[in-house]
DNA sequence: CGGCCCCGATGTCTTGCTTC
DNA sequence: GAAGCAAGACATCGGGGCCG
Protein backbone atom coordinates (compact mmCIF):
# COMPACT_ATOMS: atom_id res chain seq x y z
CA UNK A 1 0.00 0.00 0.00
CA UNK A 2 1.02 3.61 0.34
CA UNK A 3 4.40 3.08 1.76
CA UNK A 4 6.23 6.16 2.75
CA UNK A 5 9.07 6.54 0.36
CA UNK A 6 10.73 8.73 2.92
CA UNK A 7 13.50 6.22 3.30
CA UNK A 8 15.56 8.14 0.80
CA UNK A 9 16.00 11.34 2.67
CA UNK A 10 17.41 14.61 1.58
CA UNK A 11 20.96 15.28 2.79
CA UNK A 12 19.71 18.31 4.71
CA UNK A 13 17.70 15.94 6.87
CA UNK A 14 20.79 14.24 8.19
CA UNK A 15 20.87 14.75 11.90
CA UNK A 16 23.76 16.59 13.36
CA UNK A 17 26.38 14.61 15.30
CA UNK A 18 24.70 15.48 18.60
CA UNK A 19 21.37 13.99 17.59
CA UNK A 20 20.44 11.45 20.25
CA UNK A 21 19.45 8.77 17.76
CA UNK A 22 20.69 5.47 19.07
CA UNK A 23 19.67 3.33 16.17
CA UNK A 24 20.63 5.08 12.97
CA UNK A 25 23.62 7.30 12.86
CA UNK A 26 24.18 8.88 9.50
CA UNK A 27 27.47 9.89 8.01
CA UNK A 28 27.64 13.65 8.13
CA UNK A 29 27.73 14.81 4.55
CA UNK A 30 29.31 18.10 3.51
CA UNK A 31 26.49 20.66 3.62
CA UNK A 32 28.35 23.60 2.11
CA UNK A 33 28.90 23.74 -1.61
CA UNK A 34 32.47 24.03 -2.83
CA UNK A 35 33.68 27.58 -2.49
CA UNK A 36 34.73 27.95 -6.12
CA UNK A 37 31.07 28.23 -7.23
CA UNK A 38 30.21 31.10 -4.86
CA UNK A 39 26.84 29.53 -4.12
CA UNK A 40 25.40 30.55 -0.79
CA UNK A 41 24.31 27.70 1.39
CA UNK A 42 20.96 29.20 2.31
CA UNK A 43 18.36 30.07 -0.28
CA UNK A 44 17.66 33.42 1.32
CA UNK A 45 21.30 34.50 1.07
CA UNK A 46 22.30 37.00 -1.57
CA UNK A 47 24.23 35.65 -4.53
CA UNK A 48 27.63 37.16 -5.06
CA UNK A 49 26.77 40.24 -7.24
CA UNK A 50 30.29 40.29 -8.63
CA UNK A 51 29.68 36.94 -10.26
CA UNK A 52 25.89 36.71 -10.84
CA UNK A 53 23.46 39.28 -12.34
CA UNK A 54 20.98 40.65 -9.80
CA UNK A 55 18.07 39.17 -11.77
CA UNK A 56 19.25 35.65 -11.09
CA UNK A 57 17.05 34.16 -8.46
CA UNK A 58 14.23 36.62 -9.09
CA UNK A 59 10.82 34.95 -9.13
CA UNK A 60 9.43 33.94 -12.51
CA UNK A 61 5.65 33.93 -13.04
CA UNK A 62 3.05 33.66 -10.32
CA UNK A 63 3.45 31.39 -7.35
CA UNK A 64 0.99 28.53 -7.56
CA UNK A 65 0.07 28.99 -3.92
CA UNK A 66 -0.01 31.66 -1.36
CA UNK A 67 2.71 30.67 1.03
CA UNK A 68 1.05 32.05 4.14
CA UNK A 69 -1.80 29.61 4.64
CA UNK A 70 0.64 26.78 5.13
CA UNK A 71 2.06 29.01 7.77
CA UNK A 72 1.13 26.72 10.60
CA UNK A 73 3.56 24.11 9.57
CA UNK A 74 5.84 26.01 7.24
CA UNK A 75 6.28 28.84 9.66
CA UNK A 76 7.13 26.37 12.38
CA UNK A 77 9.54 24.65 10.04
CA UNK A 78 11.35 27.78 9.04
CA UNK A 79 11.47 29.07 12.57
CA UNK A 80 12.83 25.79 13.79
CA UNK A 81 15.18 25.62 10.87
CA UNK A 82 16.43 29.08 11.59
CA UNK A 83 16.85 28.24 15.21
CA UNK A 84 18.72 25.13 14.23
CA UNK A 85 20.89 27.03 11.80
CA UNK A 86 21.64 29.76 14.29
CA UNK A 87 22.66 27.36 16.95
CA UNK A 88 24.38 24.92 14.68
CA UNK A 89 27.88 25.69 15.91
CA UNK A 90 26.75 26.13 19.48
CA UNK A 91 26.24 22.41 20.05
CA UNK A 92 22.75 23.24 21.20
CA UNK A 93 21.02 20.83 23.54
CA UNK A 94 17.63 21.76 22.02
CA UNK A 95 15.52 18.89 20.82
CA UNK A 96 16.92 18.20 17.38
CA UNK A 97 14.75 15.13 17.09
CA UNK A 98 11.81 17.46 17.23
CA UNK A 99 13.35 19.57 14.52
CA UNK A 100 13.84 16.56 12.28
CA UNK A 101 10.30 15.45 12.98
CA UNK A 102 8.95 18.91 12.20
CA UNK A 103 10.94 18.99 8.99
CA UNK A 104 9.60 15.63 7.99
CA UNK A 105 6.06 16.74 8.70
CA UNK A 106 6.53 20.00 6.88
CA UNK A 107 7.95 18.16 3.89
CA UNK A 108 5.03 15.78 3.94
CA UNK A 109 2.46 18.52 4.24
CA UNK A 110 3.85 21.43 2.31
CA UNK A 111 3.51 21.36 -1.45
CA UNK A 112 6.56 20.62 -3.53
CA UNK A 113 8.14 23.21 -5.82
CA UNK A 114 5.47 23.13 -8.48
CA UNK A 115 2.77 22.97 -5.83
CA UNK A 116 1.46 19.55 -6.78
CA UNK A 117 2.73 16.04 -6.43
CA UNK A 118 1.24 13.27 -8.51
CA UNK A 119 -1.37 12.39 -5.94
CA UNK A 120 -2.11 16.05 -5.30
CA UNK A 121 -3.28 16.43 -8.87
CA UNK A 122 -5.90 13.80 -8.25
CA UNK A 123 -7.11 15.68 -5.21
CA UNK A 124 -7.23 19.10 -6.82
CA UNK A 125 -10.70 18.55 -8.20
CA UNK A 126 -11.89 22.10 -8.44
CA UNK A 127 -10.44 25.45 -9.25
CA UNK A 128 -9.69 27.93 -6.49
CA UNK A 129 -7.88 27.55 -3.21
CA UNK A 130 -5.19 25.04 -2.41
CA UNK A 131 -5.99 21.35 -2.66
CA UNK A 132 -6.96 19.82 0.65
CA UNK A 133 -3.99 17.83 1.89
CA UNK A 134 -3.83 15.88 5.11
CA UNK A 135 -3.22 18.35 7.90
CA UNK A 136 -2.96 17.53 11.57
CA UNK A 137 -5.87 18.50 13.78
CA UNK A 138 -4.38 20.17 16.82
CA UNK A 139 -5.43 22.79 19.35
CA UNK A 140 -2.69 25.02 17.92
CA UNK A 141 -4.77 25.98 14.92
CA UNK A 142 -3.58 27.71 11.80
CA UNK A 143 -5.59 30.52 10.26
CA UNK A 144 -7.69 28.15 8.13
CA UNK A 145 -8.79 26.22 11.19
CA UNK A 146 -9.38 29.41 13.13
CA UNK A 147 -11.66 30.64 10.37
CA UNK A 148 -13.56 27.35 10.38
CA UNK A 149 -14.02 27.57 14.15
CA UNK A 150 -15.09 31.21 14.06
CA UNK A 151 -17.62 30.68 11.26
CA UNK A 152 -18.92 27.45 12.76
CA UNK A 153 -19.46 29.14 16.11
CA UNK A 154 -21.27 31.93 14.26
CA UNK A 155 -23.56 29.19 12.82
CA UNK A 156 -22.48 29.58 9.22
CA UNK A 157 -23.35 26.72 6.89
CA UNK A 158 -20.58 24.36 5.93
CA UNK A 159 -20.85 25.12 2.23
CA UNK A 160 -20.51 28.83 3.00
CA UNK A 161 -17.43 28.19 5.12
CA UNK A 162 -15.93 26.06 2.36
CA UNK A 163 -16.66 28.81 -0.18
CA UNK A 164 -15.15 31.48 2.05
CA UNK A 165 -11.91 29.48 2.37
CA UNK A 166 -11.76 29.12 -1.41
CA UNK A 167 -12.53 32.79 -1.99
CA UNK A 168 -9.67 33.75 0.29
CA UNK A 169 -7.29 31.42 -1.55
CA UNK A 170 -7.08 29.10 1.43
CA UNK A 171 -7.52 25.37 1.51
CA UNK A 172 -10.14 24.05 -0.89
CA UNK A 173 -12.07 21.77 1.45
CA UNK A 174 -15.14 19.85 0.42
CA UNK A 175 -18.09 21.14 2.48
CA UNK A 176 -18.36 17.68 4.03
CA UNK A 177 -14.78 17.99 5.21
CA UNK A 178 -15.60 21.23 7.00
CA UNK A 179 -18.02 19.28 9.19
CA UNK A 180 -15.53 16.50 9.83
CA UNK A 181 -12.75 18.93 10.60
CA UNK A 182 -14.98 21.01 12.87
CA UNK A 183 -15.95 17.90 14.87
CA UNK A 184 -12.28 16.97 15.27
CA UNK A 185 -11.28 20.51 16.15
CA UNK A 186 -14.01 20.64 18.81
CA UNK A 187 -12.61 17.45 20.27
CA UNK A 188 -9.01 18.66 20.50
CA UNK A 189 -10.20 22.02 21.85
CA UNK A 190 -12.16 20.20 24.56
CA UNK A 191 -9.08 18.19 25.51
CA UNK A 192 -7.04 21.40 25.55
CA UNK A 193 -9.63 23.11 27.76
CA UNK A 194 -9.60 20.15 30.14
CA UNK A 195 -5.84 20.55 30.47
CA UNK A 196 -6.23 24.28 31.06
CA UNK A 197 -8.86 23.61 33.74
CA UNK A 198 -6.58 21.08 35.41
CA UNK A 199 -3.79 23.63 35.40
CA UNK A 200 -6.17 26.28 36.70
CA UNK A 201 -5.52 28.35 33.59
CA UNK A 202 -9.14 28.71 32.59
CA UNK A 203 -12.47 28.95 34.42
CA UNK A 204 -16.17 28.39 34.31
CA UNK A 205 -17.63 31.86 33.90
CA UNK A 206 -20.84 33.54 34.87
CA UNK A 207 -23.79 32.04 33.03
CA UNK A 208 -21.94 28.82 32.22
CA UNK A 209 -23.54 26.97 35.12
CA UNK A 210 -27.04 27.90 33.93
CA UNK A 211 -26.18 26.67 30.44
CA UNK A 212 -24.84 23.48 32.02
CA UNK A 213 -28.17 22.92 33.81
CA UNK A 214 -30.10 23.59 30.61
CA UNK A 215 -27.87 21.18 28.69
CA UNK A 216 -28.35 18.49 31.33
CA UNK A 217 -32.13 18.90 31.15
CA UNK A 218 -32.05 18.56 27.37
CA UNK A 219 -29.80 15.52 27.59
CA UNK A 220 -32.12 13.95 30.21
CA UNK A 221 -35.12 14.45 27.92
CA UNK A 222 -33.22 12.81 25.07
CA UNK A 223 -32.16 9.90 27.28
CA UNK A 224 -35.77 9.41 28.36
CA UNK A 225 -36.88 9.31 24.73
CA UNK A 226 -34.16 6.79 23.91
CA UNK A 227 -35.25 4.65 26.87
CA UNK A 228 -38.80 4.56 25.49
CA UNK A 229 -37.54 3.64 22.03
CA UNK A 230 -35.43 0.84 23.49
CA UNK A 231 -38.40 -0.42 25.54
CA UNK A 232 -40.48 -0.54 22.37
CA UNK A 233 -37.73 -2.45 20.61
CA UNK A 234 -37.64 -4.90 23.51
CA UNK A 235 -41.10 -6.32 22.69
CA UNK A 236 -40.20 -6.74 19.02
CA UNK A 237 -37.18 -8.70 20.20
CA UNK A 238 -39.33 -10.74 22.59
CA UNK A 239 -41.72 -11.72 19.80
CA UNK A 240 -38.85 -12.78 17.55
CA UNK A 241 -37.01 -14.61 20.33
CA UNK A 242 -40.19 -16.57 21.15
CA UNK A 243 -40.53 -17.67 17.56
CA UNK A 244 -36.86 -18.59 17.55
CA UNK A 245 -37.13 -20.67 20.73
CA UNK A 246 -40.46 -22.32 19.84
CA UNK A 247 -41.14 -22.16 16.09
CA UNK A 248 -44.81 -23.12 16.40
CA UNK A 249 -45.68 -19.85 18.12
CA UNK A 250 -45.94 -16.58 16.25
CA UNK A 251 -47.36 -13.84 18.45
CA UNK A 252 -46.93 -10.16 17.78
CA UNK A 253 -45.01 -7.79 20.03
CA UNK A 254 -48.30 -6.36 21.30
CA UNK A 255 -49.63 -9.84 22.12
CA UNK A 256 -46.41 -10.68 23.95
CA UNK A 257 -46.52 -7.47 25.97
CA UNK A 258 -50.21 -7.91 26.86
CA UNK A 259 -49.69 -11.55 27.87
CA UNK A 260 -46.79 -10.53 30.09
CA UNK A 261 -48.84 -7.77 31.72
CA UNK A 262 -51.77 -10.16 32.27
CA UNK A 263 -49.48 -12.78 33.81
CA UNK A 264 -48.04 -10.15 36.13
CA UNK A 265 -51.55 -9.02 37.12
CA UNK A 266 -52.80 -12.58 37.49
CA UNK A 267 -55.50 -11.99 34.90
CA UNK A 268 -54.00 -14.09 32.11
CA UNK A 269 -56.37 -16.46 30.31
CA UNK A 270 -55.56 -20.09 31.24
CA UNK A 271 -53.99 -22.29 28.56
CA UNK A 272 -56.35 -24.87 26.95
CA UNK A 273 -54.15 -27.63 28.32
CA UNK A 274 -54.80 -26.43 31.88
CA UNK A 275 -58.59 -26.54 31.52
CA UNK A 276 -59.76 -29.39 33.84
CA UNK A 277 -62.68 -30.63 31.78
CA UNK A 278 -62.18 -29.38 28.20
CA UNK A 279 -65.09 -29.32 25.81
CA UNK A 280 -64.83 -30.29 22.13
CA UNK A 281 -63.73 -26.86 21.00
CA UNK A 282 -60.89 -26.74 23.53
CA UNK A 283 -59.86 -30.24 22.62
CA UNK A 284 -59.83 -29.24 18.95
CA UNK A 285 -57.54 -26.29 19.72
CA UNK A 286 -55.16 -28.50 21.67
CA UNK A 287 -55.12 -30.99 18.82
CA UNK A 288 -54.53 -28.24 16.27
CA UNK A 289 -51.43 -27.09 18.16
CA UNK A 290 -50.17 -30.67 18.46
CA UNK A 291 -50.65 -31.15 14.72
CA UNK A 292 -48.66 -28.02 13.94
CA UNK A 293 -45.84 -29.08 16.22
CA UNK A 294 -45.80 -32.53 14.65
CA UNK A 295 -45.65 -31.01 11.16
CA UNK A 296 -42.62 -28.91 12.15
CA UNK A 297 -40.89 -31.93 13.70
CA UNK A 298 -41.61 -33.92 10.53
CA UNK A 299 -40.11 -31.22 8.33
CA UNK A 300 -37.06 -31.04 10.57
CA UNK A 301 -36.47 -34.78 10.11
CA UNK A 302 -35.82 -34.20 6.39
CA UNK A 303 -32.72 -32.23 7.14
CA UNK A 304 -29.67 -33.23 9.08
CA UNK A 305 -28.64 -29.62 9.21
CA UNK A 306 -30.22 -28.85 12.53
CA UNK A 307 -27.55 -26.36 13.29
CA UNK A 308 -28.37 -24.56 10.11
CA UNK A 309 -32.07 -24.57 10.94
CA UNK A 310 -31.41 -23.29 14.42
CA UNK A 311 -29.19 -20.54 13.16
CA UNK A 312 -30.80 -19.45 9.94
CA UNK A 313 -34.33 -20.70 9.50
CA UNK A 314 -35.73 -17.77 11.35
CA UNK A 315 -32.89 -15.49 12.26
CA UNK A 316 -31.78 -15.03 8.66
CA UNK A 317 -34.86 -12.91 8.16
CA UNK A 318 -34.76 -11.30 11.55
CA UNK A 319 -35.44 -7.63 11.48
CA UNK A 320 -32.80 -5.19 12.60
CA UNK A 321 -34.03 -3.91 15.94
C1' DC B 1 -28.15 20.32 6.52
C1' DG B 2 -25.25 18.25 9.56
C1' DG B 3 -23.85 14.30 12.57
C1' DC B 4 -22.06 9.84 12.46
C1' DC B 5 -19.80 5.94 10.57
C1' DC B 6 -16.90 4.10 7.49
C1' DC B 7 -13.25 3.54 3.91
C1' DG B 8 -9.33 4.49 1.01
C1' DA B 9 -5.16 7.09 0.86
C1' DT B 10 -1.13 8.35 2.88
C1' DG B 11 2.24 9.52 6.53
C1' DT B 12 4.95 7.76 10.57
C1' DC B 13 7.24 4.49 13.23
C1' DT B 14 9.33 0.08 14.08
C1' DT B 15 11.57 -4.01 12.87
C1' DG B 16 14.15 -7.17 10.23
C1' DC B 17 17.02 -8.06 6.30
C1' DT B 18 20.83 -6.88 3.14
C1' DT B 19 24.95 -4.69 1.85
C1' DC B 20 29.35 -2.86 2.60
C1' DG C 1 28.61 -3.27 13.15
C1' DA C 2 26.74 0.68 10.75
C1' DA C 3 23.86 2.29 7.21
C1' DG C 4 20.27 1.76 3.95
C1' DC C 5 16.19 -0.36 2.40
C1' DA C 6 11.73 -2.95 2.52
C1' DA C 7 7.75 -4.24 4.69
C1' DG C 8 4.22 -4.27 8.13
C1' DA C 9 1.48 -2.05 11.76
C1' DC C 10 -0.65 1.80 13.12
C1' DA C 11 -2.47 6.65 13.04
C1' DT C 12 -4.75 10.24 10.84
C1' DC C 13 -6.80 12.63 7.21
C1' DG C 14 -10.43 13.87 3.58
C1' DG C 15 -14.56 12.73 1.94
C1' DG C 16 -18.64 9.50 0.59
C1' DG C 17 -22.97 7.40 2.21
C1' DC C 18 -26.69 7.12 5.24
C1' DC C 19 -30.08 8.94 8.09
C1' DG C 20 -32.74 11.95 11.24
TrEMBL record:
Residues 1-16 have a biased composition (Polar residues). Residues 140-194 form the DUF7626 domain. Residues 209-236 form a coiled coil. It comes from the Eukaryota. Residues 1-32, 53-124, 260-290 are annotated as: Disordered. Residues 281-290 have a biased composition (Basic and acidic residues). Pfam families: DUF7626. Residues 82-99 have a biased composition (Acidic residues). The keyword Ribosomal protein does not apply. InterPro entries: DUF7626. Keywords: Coiled coil. This is DUF7626 domain-containing protein.
